[in-house]
Design brief:
Helix content is 24%, strand content 34%. It is elongated and about 65 Å long. The model has no long low-confidence stretch (mean pLDDT 79). The chain has two helices and four strands, in the order ββββαα. Strands 1-2-3-4 form a four-stranded antiparallel sheet, with helices on one face. It has a domain of 61 residues.
Amino acid sequence: MQSVRTSETVMLGYTIERVDSVDASGLAWDTTFEVLGADGNSMLGGEHPTLRAAQNFVLWHELEVARRRNDLPLFRTKTFQSKTTRSGKPQSRTTDTQAA
């Protein structure tokens, strides 16, 4: 069996390749999709049965990287917190005239 690789698409910097397993007579036996890293040398996440599954993996991978980056202690400091909420005492929706 031989593998024939064809570049299908580039998504968010990751290359998705179609890998066809071909026998000696040239018949394709199996088709899978692999996601290659931005450098083109490293494979991320193994084989996927469809192109859509490989694309979903790329999206999941990017969201996971962003989530992990936001969990770093640097992003939990006051420098990176939102300025729209006040820390300290909670805001009340009723005014003194409404309460009376």
